[in-house]
Amino acid sequence: MIQQASIDTLMRALADPTRRAVFERIAEGGEISVSDLTLGSGVTKGAVSQHLKALKQAGLVCERPEGRHVYYRAEPAGLAPLADWMSHYDAFWRQRFGNLRELLKEIDP
């Protein structure tokens, strides 16, 4: 069974569109600093830092300090609770897609 607290924290972290955008930039870029995340984002450095804090608490990113800079990278294992939660619905969707496939065959043989 999936720990309810971890899935709730994860979904709450990803519910915010700006936070999702920050996470996506990190996931695409390997390692990135707060300053680099702020450039061109239209979000203040303080706001980006708050989003990073929530992503870190959810286990989605980890940080590496280097001198005056802190670099963030995506933590793929952080998405595991979401993947586990979604896997519970696999049979539901598999059946629905099977039904859709059959219906499409009937409509256009």
Polypeptide structure, described:
With 109 residues, the chain is an alpha+beta fold. The protein is built from six helices and three strands. A three-stranded antiparallel beta sheet has the order 1-3-2. Helix 1 runs antiparallel to helix 4 and helix 2 crosses helix 4. The N and C termini lie far apart (43 Å).
Briefly say what this structure is.
The chain has 6 helices and 3 strands.
CATH topology heading: Arc Repressor Mutant, subunit A
Mind telling me the CATH class? Mainly Alpha
Strand order of the largest sheet: 1-3-2
Distance between the termini: 43 Å
Give the uncertain stretches in residue-range form.
none
Order of helices and strands: HHEHHEEHH
| pLDDT averaged over residues | 87
**Number of strand elements:** 3
Number of domains: 1
- Report on the biggest sheet: 3 strands, antiparallel
- Summed up, the helix count is 6
Shape descriptor:
elongated
Radius of gyration: 19 Å
* Corresponding CATH superfamily: Winged helix-like DNA-binding domain superfamily/Winged helix DNA-binding domain
Class of secondary structure makeup: alpha+beta
Architecture blueprint of SSEs:
Layout: H1 4-15, H2 17-29, E1 31-33, H3 34-38, H4 45-57, E2 61-66, E3 69-74, H5 80-87, H6 90-107
Antiparallel strand pairs: 1-3, 2-3
Characteristic key phrases:
single chain, 109 residues, alpha+beta, Arc Repressor Mutant, subunit A, three-stranded antiparallel β-sheet, 6 helices
